[in-house]
Amino acid sequence: MGDLSFIEEIEKLKTNQIIPNIINSLPNRSLKVKYGIRYIDMSDKLTPIAVKDKPTIEYLLNQDGSEENQYFTLILVSVDEPSKINRLEGEFKQWILVNIKGNNISKSDELVKYIQPLPLIGTGLHRYIFILCKQPSKLDFIGEFKIPFNMEKRKDWNSEQFIKKWNLTVEGINYFECEYDDSVEKLLTELIDSKEKTNQINK
Fold it and tell me: What Pfam families does the record point to (predicted)?
């Protein structure tokens, strides 16, 4: 898996209405996503329990070394809320990393803690989109919310507005689809019961 050519990736994004319906920018590089030992191909159908743990993210930098000190943002967002045919609730933040230095994911700030997909029972397949963006510089993201393991401030979001607000440039896109399994109810209960607090980033 994960062996589509870059041209095939672009065509899949268009065919499956990711571009321009959700993201109005073409990517410039491949974004590889690996859950466990499996690389995903765009539109792969996965179960929530199979993507319970955060994935490994891979992308190449420019060969001339000019991006080694470049900063990137990675977004994972659910776009089909509450369902693909009834997208009325905005997007749901699953995971956001900011200030990634080069392609070293370990050198980043976790703005939104990773949680697995939470498609509700009877709502069919949902699309989960990874968006890699280039930052203009290292950013403080003042005014944004640092979200831990809870449900607060994740709902009714818009990734395009976030990208424009912080002057980000879309570089890579990948996505998979997912529908309900029993792990969803368990995680929802844990999230609702969580005592961890969301904090707004101030100066």
Answer: PBP (PF01161)
**3-class secondary structure, 34:** strand
- What does the block give as tokens for 125? 């397949």
Q: Computed from CA positions of residues 51, 133, 124, 42, in that sequence, does the dihedral angle turn out positive or negative?
A: negative
Contact 155, 89 (CB under 8 A): yes
Could you tell me which of 60, 189, 168 has the C-alpha nearest to residue 111?
Answer: 168
- How many residues does this entry show for the chain? 203
Mean pLDDT of the chain: 95
For the chain, helix, strand, coil in percent to 5 are 15, 30, 50
> How sure is the predictor about 2, in pLDDT bands with cuts at 50, 70 and 90?
low
For 64, which DSSP code?
T
Average pLDDT over residues 44-62: 97
User: Which amino acid type is present at position 163?
Assistant: I
Question: CATH fold of 6-200, please?
Answer: Phosphatidylethanolamine-binding Protein (3.90.280)
- Using CA atoms, how far apart are residues 129 and 3, in angstroms rounded to an integer? 18
